Amino acid sequence: MASRDHYEPRRNGTSPTQTASDMHIDNEEKLRYELAKTVTLTPELYEKLFISPKTQVAGSLRTTFGNPTPVGVLGFSVSVLPLACAFMGWRGSGGLAVATTGATIWFGGILLFLAGIGEFLLGNNFPMIVFLAYGAHLMTFATTFIPWFNAIGFFNPNGSGIGSPGTANQTSVFLSSFAFYLIAMGILSFLFLLGSLRVNGVFVLIFLVVTIGFGLGAGAFFHLGKGNVALGNKLATGTGACFFAASVLGFYFLLALIIAIMELPIPDPPVFDLSTVIKPKSRAILKEE
Fold this sequence. Notes:
By secondary structure, this protein is an all-alpha fold. It is built from ten helices and no strands. The longest helix is centred in the last third of the chain and has 34 residues, at about 230-260. It is elongated. Keywords: Membrane, Transmembrane, Transmembrane helix.
């Protein structure tokens, strides 16, 4: 995330008409001063534009490229919403969201990959990890149900190892095996939940419901593999509800980003910034000393 200090104008009463030598500032201070002449957003507004605690990454890439955070947020929200509705079976939907595989790949996978690379270039470590990880997950989920990958067809009852997605092909072996992957994603999401405690309240809620959703999803696949269809379907519905909540929260955060970026004359939706509430370890150590 871009440091607020990086964009704040000097407040020592220096006139913009003074020369650099008169102001006695170094190159970094010059950069700050030049940015201050063109950037009007307040420090509080900048807190909404990124999902990483403030960093001190050097360089001018932040002034060269656009902010990748909204791209990652919209990619996640758009791809997860139909997936969640399919898991809940709304309006006759279902089939593990195979109908929206294209959206899962392009919005969920490609856009999250691009956002992760963008965060990497800006030096934002935490959102880089999150976007790349969930991009890989959505690509994994989508490609699992593409016949060419043969992930489901391999478990055909006749042992042929070929086939297309369908209920008949989703044997207990496949379901139980895939459930362990969802457990791994649940563990990863819990780690992201811990990291989000220094981001904002919206992301804490997103990672919380996503962690619960992966746990319910793993339970659903295990029970469906054992033939407990009723309980498995209930757990799958719970999975869909969790990811639906995550998608809605993502759209809410995207709204806050768009309002901040475009400086729309409407109230800013609160995102409950936590970066100044939970102090970083280095500051805590210095305070004790």
